[in-house]
C-alpha cells in the first residue's frame, strides 16, 4: 500500500473511531435521564474508542507530515486534527464524568470538528478536479447550525423558543444545500450518504421536538448530525 493509500486508510479508521466516540458520548449524556440505561458499558466503549483514535491520529499525523512537501494542506489538516484530539483529551481529564455545561458544549463541538477534519483529510487525499465554491457556504452554514444545535441541547431551558425555530429553518436550508452537493458527487456512496443524511437529520430533529425529545429520536438526530458533519467535510474536500 502506497503512502497516500495508507493515509486514506488511517484517516478512515480515525473517522470511524471518532463517530463511535460521538455516538457513545451522545448516549451517555442522553441516557443519564433514563432509568436503567446501561451507561457503564457505554463508558467503556467511549474510553476504548477514544484511546484507539489517539493512536490512529498519530499515524495520520506522521504520514501527512512526511508527505508535507507534496501536500502541505494535508499536513496542516492533520495538525488541526491532532490539536483537537489533544484539546478533547485535556478537556475530558479536567471535566470528568459529569462535565459542566460549558465543558459539555466544548466536548460536543470539538468532537464534531474532529470528525469533519478526518473526513476532510480522507476526501482531500482522493480529490477530483471539480471545484464548486458553494461548498464553502454550505460548510459555514453547517458549522453555525452545529453550534446553535449544541447550544440548544445543553443550555436551553424551554424547548419551543426562537433559537429552536431558527435551528429548524436553517437546518432545512442546509439540508437542501447538502442534497445539492450530494447530487454532484461523482461516487455513488458519498452521493447517497449526503442525500440520506440531508433527509434524516431534519426528520429526526422534528420528531424529537414534536414528541417531547424521546431518547430514540433525540439520539438519532444527534448521531445523524455527526454523520452529516463528517459527510459534509468529505464532500467539501472533494468539491471546494
Question: What would you say this structure looks like, in words?
Answer:
This protein is mostly helical. It folds into two domains: 1-126, Four Helix Bundle (Hemerythrin (Met), subunit A) (Up-down Bundle), CATH 1.20.120; 129-240. Helix content is 82%, strand content 0%. The two termini are 27 Å apart. The relative contact order is 0.13. The mean pLDDT is 88.
Quick summary of this structure?
With 240 residues, this protein is mainly α. It has two domains: 1-126, Four Helix Bundle (Hemerythrin (Met), subunit A) (Up-down Bundle); 129-240.
What is the CATH C level class of the largest domain, in words? Mainly Alpha
Radius of gyration: 18 Å
Helix content: over 70%
* Distance N to C terminus: 27 Å
Any guess at the CATH architecture of the largest domain? Up-down Bundle
Which regions are unreliable across 5 or more consecutive residues at pLDDT < 50? none
Overall morphology: globular
β-strand number: 0
- Averaged pLDDT: 88
Number of domains: 2
Strand content: under 5%
Can you count the helices?
8
Structural class: mainly alpha
CATH topology of the largest domain: Four Helix Bundle (Hemerythrin (Met), subunit A)
Largest sheet at a glance? none
Order of helices and strands: HHHHHHHH
